[in-house]
Amino acid sequence: MKASDLFVRCLEEEGVEYVFGVPGEENLDVIESLRNSRIQLIVTRHEQHAAFMAATYGRLTGRAGVCLSTLGPGATNLLTGIAYAQLGGMPLLAITGQKAIRDNRQGRFQLIDVVDTFRPVTKWNSSLTDSGVIPRSIRHAFKVAESERPGAVHLELPEDIAGEEIEPSRPQARVSLRRPNADEQATEQAANMIRAARQPIIIYSSGANRKRITEQLQSFVEATGLFAIGTQMGKGVLADDHPQSLFCMGIHNHDYVHSAIDEADLVITLGYDVVEYPPAVWNADKDKPIMHIDFVPAEPDEWYSPAHEVIGDISNTLVNLRQRLAGHRFDTTRLARLRTFVDERLHRGEYEYSYPPTPQRIVNQVRGVMGREDIISLDNGIYKIWFARMYPAYAHNTVLLDNALASMGAGLAAAMAAKMVHGTRRVMAICGDGGFMMNSQDLETAVRLKLDLVILLLRDDGYGFIRWKQAGAGFEDFGMSFGNPDFVAYARAYGATGLRVAEGDRLGDVFEHAYAQGGVVLVDCPIDYGPNSELDHAHHVDPAVLEGKTL
Which of these, 234, 233, 248, lies nearest to 204 by C-alpha position? Predict the structure, then answer.
């Protein structure tokens, strides 16, 4: 058999459904082996887009997504998507080609040290210089990528290794391993700390954005009376219409929800990583006792130095803590008042018609057309903050955003992968004109895959987030503007449907019309970022609200 055939059989053994990538001369043997495989090759128009799709597949399924490129520029184009997976805790396997090891007739053409280049942004990577190690290397790669904390791994397959004839061999069997449970003494100590506290608060983050944790967190807060706040990447772990949800820490200033942390004498974090939301925002005085509950130990910094850690399967830890705290319930009165106050401020506004629409109006209208388990995918821009702050989420992994690498250009890719994983749900990609144009060529991929997908293109003809930061720093408005194509015509050129929000249109009606069209539909919508000044201010809650003296 050929080594590339064994390589692909090993991928099949791991349950791989898709390989996202761009073909090249050095990976042609693998491409041919995929042709005869049950794995579907998804050819994208840029390697970065392939890596973003693979990472999102990993995020949604828990199984490593796979992306593929050739050597040199193909490999370096993958790099941003690999870093996106690594920092965001998404399991991913990147496969790159390489020149022949034994008989390289092309000298240094396109030749760079890909393994060393990828080392800082992967959990593990290797070059397969011997076909005999293919089975164990692939098994190891998937195990490392999917183990806690998930992330990116890389295998380089030189073309002469891929094409050589070898003795028939079998893949190593995929083995499902249970995560270890936390130490009993650590769990008991945690229960004692919670019992001794006056008003603990829970912060859940990206590492907790999983179905079983959602189920156990809901049971835990209901049994104890505790309230919980999400970070941007944790949105949906506890449904925002649950009476003990305090919604999301959407901005990096003190916001209304941070008042609950001000009140707390113990902060319990679930799946928290400092890369995703800076603890300096909610622990500025470095005086909050912190309990770190996660699959892996904390990486402490100046503002995040846990007093206690419970390391093991998070959902099991919540079950054990609930049992140990049976009969102990915290008073919900003050935080219930805070929840009502925040809900009215952020979610109950009328947001009257204006043209161009404001971010608040857009968030409100998008929420109105999306079901509880439908998915929005946010690229990176100032609108991401508005959605994180004001868009109620009702199920885990229904708000896909990246606040770790925070790369522009990932929104469309993440939405495409989400639609492939959850084909019956509505999916909407929400992109600024800056981020969208970084990978807009993959509109063709979405059309070719016959995806039913709506893309909301928020157009301000500039780099709006950086313009906001520039103004906040007191600098003159400079270097932030650009021109745009006619996005309706642009979408149609790829075979998609293009719609334009015109003055007088009701946004919700436009979105419903877009979904009724079927296929890939781009909605070109101008946006008025005048309200951004609201995000510059700290938002505090009058203690009288918590005391029930006023709402």
Answer: 234
* Residue 428 · residue 366 · CB < 8 Å: yes
Q: Global pTM?
A: 0.96
Q: What are phi and psi of 180, to 5 degrees?
A: -70, 150
Confidence of residue 250 (pLDDT cuts 50, 70, 90): confident
Residues 6+ apart with CB under 8 A from 499: 488, 510, 513, 514, 517, 521, 522, 523, 524
SS3 call for 185:
helix
* C-alpha span between 374 and 367 (Å, rounded): 10
Rounded-to-integer distance, Cα 300 and Cα 42, Å: 40
- Residue 267, token pair as written in the block: 């902060």
Q: How far apart are CA 250 and CA 232, in angstroms?
A: 6
**Torsion, Cα of 405, 411, 417, 422 (10° steps):** 110
Half-sphere exposure of 411 (CA within 13 A, CB side): 28
192-201 pLDDT, tens digit per residue, is 999 999 999 9
Alpha-carbon distance of 551 to 549, in angstroms, equals 7
Non-local (6+) Cβ contacts of 218 within 8 A are 238, 239, 242
Amino acid making up residue 449: L
Question: What residues does 290 pair with on adjacent strands?
Answer: 267
CA dihedral 300, 536, 405, 297 (to 10 degrees): 20
Does residue 216 contact residue 319 with C-beta atoms inside 8 Å? yes
| Span 423-428, average pLDDT | 98
| Residue 268 phi, psi dihedral angles, 5° rounding | -105, 115
| Dihedral angle over CA of 331, 337, 340, 343, nearest 10 | -90
DSSP letter, residue 243: T
For the chain, list the domains and their CATH numbers: 3-163 (3.40.50.970), 184-342 (3.40.50.1220), 351-536 (3.40.50.970)
3-state secondary structure of 240: coil
Peptide bond into 356 cis (omega under 30): yes
**Rounded CA Rg of the chain:** 24
C-alpha pair distances (Å), 49 with each of 22, 442, 445: 10, 8, 10
Look at 50 and 176; give whichever has higher pLDDT: 50
First to last CA, the chain: 74
Measure CA 148 to chain center. Answer: 16
Residue 459 sits at φ, ψ, to 5 deg, of: -110, 120
Q: Contact, 155 vs 138, CB < 8 A?
A: yes
Taking the CA atoms of residue 215, residue 220, residue 222 and residue 228 in that order, the dihedral angle to the nearest 10 degrees is -90
- Retrieve residue 365's tokens: 């209208």
pLDDT of residue 109: 63
Element (H, E) at 201: strand 200-204
Decide: 544 and 550 in contact? Cβ < 8 Å.
Answer: yes
Q: How confident is the model at residue 110 (pLDDT cuts 50, 70, 90)?
A: low
Distance CA 11, CA 5 (A): 10
CA distance 69 to 417: 18
Edge-to-edge strands of the sheet including 266-270? Answer: 245-248, 228-230, 200-204, 266-270, 290-294, 308-311
